[in-house]
Amino acid sequence: MAKVEQLVNLLVKVRERPPPLVLSLEGRYVAVGDLHGDMHTLEKVLEEWEPPYLFLGDYVDRGDHGLEVVEQVLQLFVEGKAVALRGNHESPIMNMDGGFLDELCEKIGRKCGAVYREFEKTFASLPLIAVVNKKIIALHGGIPLKDDMTPAALEEVEKISGDMTTPRDPLAFQILWNDPCPCEKYAPSPRGPGIWLFGYEITKAFHTRHGTRTIVRGHTYVPTGCAVHHDGGVITVFTSNAGPYKKTKPKIALVKEEVEVYDLATKNSAKCPQDVDIF
Ligand SMILES: [Mn+2]
User: Fold this and answer.
1) How far is the CA of 207 from the centre of ligand 1 (A)?
2) How far does the centroid of ligand 1 lie from the alpha carbon of residue 58, in Å?
3) What residue stretches are annotated with the Serine/threonine specific protein phosphatases domain (predicted)?
4) What spacing in Å lies between the alpha carbon of 2 and ligand 1's midpoint?
5) I need a surface site. Which of 3, 7, 53, 87 has the fewest CB within 10 A?
6) Whole-model pTM?
7) Which domains, and CATH codes, for the chain?
């Protein structure tokens, strides 16, 4: 049981000093897209790329090693070697059927319910957005839209409060769930109610307002492991090779003043398809 205690201690430590919802970072980061329980790929990233890392969320569900992946990511986070952003799978609405809760119960037995509640609280404390060198925005899903269907500003995201377990706030929810579309403005998302596809003009307005260049994000499965949208205003990185993603060619992104995408297997600079229609 020492291992369970260790795990709970780690979870408590992550949320002891909760980071702001919008983190401001400087320097160079290795951005890692969805892992979904792919420990093998995470190990390869850690072996071949120097820290610090910027994890873009979706550590658990679908693959078999969600527990190992999320533990490693959060360990690096508390050691200051990584930033762990929240994904839509860091949430009870996904983990009940997505595989993580079952995995937890298989691996740690009857205490899994209590330990899962610790995960729930820690997931709720994870940051939603990182701004790197004032130029690059990192988040899991996409730009959130306000009621008037204009993009929310970072200042508005910073002010989000209330229960973050699911989360209830529509802006926070959309940051975890939205996707880019090869469209001008926006469209309802096939993922479900309250979720949007955002287009070229939304991305442009967001970057103009903040003086930023690119949004690097995960969330969308692309077999090529990366995709470029909105003239480079948005870049998708996908890093899982586990479970349903066996055919992916995982990518990572080097985030500095710009975003450069690399193939994990070859370490070569990657050519990402442009404006793919992901649904
Ligand atoms: Mn996702």
Assistant:
1) 22
2) 6
3) 2-259
4) 32
5) 3
6) 0.97
7) 2-7+22-263 (3.60.21.10)
Estimate to the nearest angstrom the gap between the alpha carbon of 202 and the chain centroid: 20
Using alpha carbons, list the distances in angstroms from residue 228 to 218, 221, 231, 257: 12, 13, 7, 17
**Alpha-carbon gap, residue 236 to 252, rounded angstroms:** 10
Tens-digit pLDDT string for the chain (279 aa): 569 999 999 999 999 988 899 999 999 999 999 999 999 999 999 999 999 999 999 999 999 999 999 999 999 999 999 999 999 999 999 999 999 999 999 999 999 999 999 999 999 999 999 999 999 999 999 999 999 999 999 999 999 999 999 899 999 999 999 999 999 999 999 999 999 999 999 999 999 999 999 999 999 999 999 999 999 999 999 999 998 999 999 999 999 999 999 999 999 999 999 988 877
Is 89 catalytic? The answer is yes
167 alpha carbon – ligand 1 mean position (Å):
14
